[in-house]
Design goal:
The protein is mainly α and 205 residues long. 73% of the residues lie in helices and 0% in strands.
């Protein structure tokens, strides 16, 4: 912002106040225009952030649905493996290899939310909207944490190999316990997933 001296000499107190008024009005107009430009820019950032939230949450819901759809199959595999480990094979027969349950790990993203926080775009959104999106992303993070936990459980199970005949009694008991933990995970991810789906659906309203 530049300031310029009056074009002519100030001859009286009236001239002084006239020039002061002109300068003041000019400053106020410049500041007002600057604020309008800034407000427009902030509003644009907020709109882009909301568009990003909606796209990202929609994609995350699709990913979660894929995980939840796989839960019954994973649970059935766990129960089959436990049954196989607890059965006493018939004389002269070789027990089948351990059929470990699979694993699902779908990418859950929060990049749009993290960017909005970094750019302070949330300051220009209504409180109720921010609250809905915050709840949705909060539960999405819980869902992702459960998925990460499942990887550790899955790795712990598979360290026993596939040949039942090589397992000691204690190893067999430990493996069954690991399978039970994985079964518990399927209920936890199902519970968190259903809550996350609801929170996401609410956020998109």
């Amino acid at each position: 912002m530049e300031f310029h001296a009056p074009a002519g000499p100030i001859r009286s107190l009236k001239d002084f106040f006239l020039h002061l008024g002109i300068v003041t009005v000019g400053i106020l107009i410049a500041l007002g225009l600057e604020q309008l430009v800034e407000a427009h820019h902030r509003a644009k950032i907020a709109r882009v952030a909301v568009q990003g939230f909606r796209r990202e949450i929609t994609d995350d819901m699709d990913e979660m649905k894929g995980v939840l759809d796989a839960v019954p199959r994973l649970r059935a595999q766990v129960l089959d493996s436990i049954a196989s480990l607890t059965e006493t094979p018939a004389a002269g027969t070789h027990p089948p290899p351990i059929n470990y349950p699979g694993i699902t790990f779908n990418l859950i993203s929060s990049a749009s939310w993290d960017t909005a926080i970094a750019t302070q775009a949330l300051n220009d959104l209504p409180y109720e909207s921010v609250k809905r999106y915050a709840e949705a992303y909060g539960v999405l993070h819980l869902f992702l944490d459960e998925e990460r936990n499942s990887i550790n459980l899955w790795q712990n199970m598979r360290r026993f190999g596939q040949d039942q005949t090589l397992l000691t009694k204690d190893e067999r008991i430990t493996l069954i316990e690991e399978l039970r933990r994985y079964e518990s995970y399927t209920y936890a991810i199902e519970l968190v997933g259903k809550g996350a789906m609801k929170s996401c659906a609410d956020a998109l309203q």
